[in-house]
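Retro notes, item 3 of 5
We never archived the inputs for the NAP complex last cycle. Fixing that now. Sequence and ligand:
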Amino acid sequence: MTILVTGATGAVGRHLVATLLERGADVRALTRKPEDAALPDGVEVVAGDLADASTLGPEVFGGVDRVFVFPAHGVEAFVDAAVAAGVHRFTVLSSLAAAREFPRDNGSASQLHHSAVEAAVTERTDAWTILRPGTFANNLLSWSWQIRSGAPIRAPYLASAQAPIHEYDVAEAAAETLLTDDHLGEVIAMTGPEAITRGGQVAAIAGALDRDVPLIEITPEEFRAETEQFIPEPVMKMLLDYWSDTLTTPDQPRPVTPVTGRPGRSLAQWATDHQADFMG
Ligand SMILES: NC(=O)c1ccc[n+]([C@@H]2O[C@H](COP(=O)([O-])OP(=O)(O)OC[C@H]3O[C@@H](n4cnc5c(N)ncnc54)[C@H](OP(=O)(O)O)[C@@H]3O)[C@@H](O)[C@H]2O)c1
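Structure as it came back at the time:
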């Protein structure tokens, strides 16, 4: 039984590939650029674009029983091809935004995209598991430039509290759903193990680096003015709404433990694992 991992060169996908290999699975990895994939020995790397059916032939799906679906735009092409090729099981990377638990989620960039990705799978097959992680700890890599250069981080809503999830925990949950039959038909919400203020998140990174990280609280209006040339408006709105809401209603942690059998990694652990990203 071969498991096809899409998004295999990404943060979640790389750890998923490594976890599946460790657990003895036959793994095939899809990427648009096999020459740059740098995946471990033992993985069969194939070229393909999730959004381009002409690239998704027998070399992609031959012998494949289960797939991990990365939520690329246009992924319907991939799901169509996978179903036609006889793939039996789909684990889908979605987002907690698709649960629409809060008014801010309705119509947000993430909700619209991930709801469409989920529908692309659930409208074509019954054999799915959907993973809905909340905010990724990797989003904090957006501070890496300031931290590397010693410039202060300038950020709003420092007292708002989120529960960022380590990409390894998402990957290990995905592996579990692909290797067992225990989660078929489940929609699984997952976050990091605790809600931490944005100020505390900076402190976790500073702790891993064993040095001070200067931090200045700015207003949402200042943040918008300073970053709008880099952040598209739908994403800007989503971020500001999320941070504003979590000032008064911190993220409620959704442990990965029931799926992975172990507690989710702390933000301090994530920061330690990513020290190199923050060092000059
Ligand atoms: N950030 C958050 O807070 C958050 C929360 C919940 C869910 N999510 C979801 O998680 C995703 C990020 O996961 P990640 O961090 O593992 O991703 P990542 O590190 O950004 O990597 C993106 C991966 O997607 C692959 N890819 C993109 N478009 C493709 C296409 N058309 N065909 C084939 N492969 C394609 C890339 O492969 P190649 O370049 O090698 O082809 C790469 O492996 C987000 O996009 C979002 O959907 C994010």
